[in-house]
Amino acid sequence: MALGYALGQDSNNGNGNGMWGGDGWWAIILFAMIFGWGNGGWGGFGGNGGINSPAGQGALTRADLCSEFNFNDLQNGVRGIQQGICDSTFALNNSINNGFHGVDTAVCNLGYQTQMGFNSLGAQMAQCCCDTQTAIQGVRYDMATQACDTRNLIQSTTRDIIDGQNANTRAILDFLTQDKISSLQAENQSLKLAASQANQNSYLTATLDAQTSELIRRINPMPVPAYQVPAPYPYCGAYNNGCGCGC
Q1: Residues 70, 76 contacting (CB under 8 angstroms)
Q2: Which of 91, 100, 177, 239 is the most exposed, fewest CB within 10 Å of its CB?
Q3: What is d(CA 73, CA 2) in angstroms, rounded to the nearest whole number?
Q4: Hey, is 154 helix, strand or coil?
Q5: 65 in a structural domain
Q6: Per-residue pLDDT tens for 89-138?
């Protein structure tokens, strides 16, 4: 700003337009004016006193003193710009670092959350598989139990049917056997009675025959003719109704 006053420029008109402001051209022009032209340098384009000038001999004019102050202000401004650039660079670097750190943290958190999600999903899948296996085992156990109960029921029912058939068969066979035995017993009894009756009849007949023969022998033994002859009086007493001697 001091350099601007020294050059006769308004501090509010030359800033940032590429002329005498803070764009850097004023530093080049200043060095050219001090060291390259006329009496402001060490000989320049015409000498004008050269090293023998008051400025060359160490005497300072108001313009030289003002130039030195302006150059000092210029150095301070450049130094402030450098510090501002450094501060801006440091702040930008910190912002970038913080941004990347935030991105890294977000990526890490995202990876951690993703890993946790995969772990939770894996645990749920494992639990689901375990539950499914347990359910399958339960179904298999129930099926095996039901099959065993069904087989036992079929065996018990079949045994009951067979036992019933055997009992019915035994009852029928027992009835037939008893009926056969009764029939045989009745027939045997009938045969026994018939045999006994025949024996009794034979005994009675034999007894009667023996008694008759004994009576006949004792009453009158009669000669036994050699041949049969008719009775000499076959019609005696036919008309007297059997009265008299009866011959």
Answers
A1: no
A2: 239
A3: 7
A4: helix
A5: yes
A6: 888 888 888 887 788 788 888 888 888 888 888 888 888 888 998 999 99
What residues contact residue 30 under an 8 Å CB cut-off, 6+ apart?
A: 3, 67, 70, 71, 74
CA dihedral 159→163→166→168, nearest 10 degrees, is -130
CA distances from 184 to 170, 173, 181, 187, 247 (A): 20, 16, 5, 5, 59
Q: Is 245 part of a structural domain of the chain?
A: no
Round to whole Å and give the CA distance between 164 and 152: 18
Rounded distance, CA 30 to CA 48, Å? 19
pLDDT digits (tens, 9 = 90+) for 138-162: 999 999 999 999 999 999 999 999 9
Q: Note down the domain range covering 43.
A: 2-85
The count of structural domains within the chain is: 1
Tokens at 94, concatenated: 């910190």
| Chain centre to alpha carbon of residue 71 | 88
Per the CB < 8 A criterion, the answer to whether 53 and 61 are in contact is no
Of residues 10, 34, 31, the one with CA closest to residue 20: 10
Residue 212 lies in a domain: no
Chain mean position to CA 176: 64
> What is the pTM (predicted TM-score) of this model?
0.32
Distance CA 241, CA 218 (A): 30
Inside any domain, residue 151: no
Residues contacting 20, CB < 8 A, separation 6+: 3, 4, 7, 9, 14, 26
Tell me the one-letter amino acid at 60. Answer: L
